[in-house]
Amino acid sequence: MKKIIFILSVIFLFQGIALAQQDGGGKNLQDVKNKILQRLQNKKRITSAFESCITSANSRQDIKSCRQRHKAAMKNFRENNKQMRQNFREEKQKRKEERQNRRGGF
Predict the structure, then answer these.
(1) Which residue pairs from 45-52 have beta carbons closer than 8 angstroms and sit at least 24 positions apart in sequence?
(2) Residue 42: which residues within 8 A CB-CB, separation 6 or more?
(3) Alpha helices, DSSP H only, in 1-106?
(4) What mean pLDDT do residues 77-99 have?
């Protein structure tokens, strides 16, 4: 009898986890995928602009200016990503504090 109860509880546990991942994570997963794809597109845009600049360069000075522009663009790109990560961490911390407050501080 104990084995049957244990097996049923394990089955219901895994079933609940699977349903929670399917239902609750769908919107969040799509948001994460969109953010990642947006960052990749921005990085591709910067890289292709750098590539076209290098291709059209006629002197070492042109190449140097291409590198400087690319370096500045990538610095801006990394700073934006850093700010996005910081905002995410702050939101995550707020959600954690709200959960702890609902539980009574535990």
Answers:
(1) 46/70, 46/73, 46/74, 46/77, 49/73
(2) 77
(3) 2-56, 60-103
(4) 90
User: pTM score > 0.70 for this model?
Assistant: no
Q: How far apart are CA 97 and CA 92, in angstroms?
A: 9
| Rounded CA separation 20/48 (Å) | 41
- d(CA 11, CA 4) in angstroms, rounded, equals 11
Q: Give me the residue label for tokens 């969040």.
A: 28
Q: What is the pLDDT of residues 18-45, one digit of tens each?
A: 555 555 556 788 888 998 999 999 999 9
The two three-digit tokens of residue 61, written as one number: 């000075």
Query: Which amino acid makes up residue 21?
Result: Q
Terminus-to-terminus CA distance in the chain, angstroms?
Answer: 35
With H, G, I as helix, E, B as strand and everything else as coil, classify residue 1.
coil
Q: What angle do CA 99, 103, 105 make, to 5 degrees?
A: 90
Residues 9, 100: Cα–Cα separation, whole Å: 27
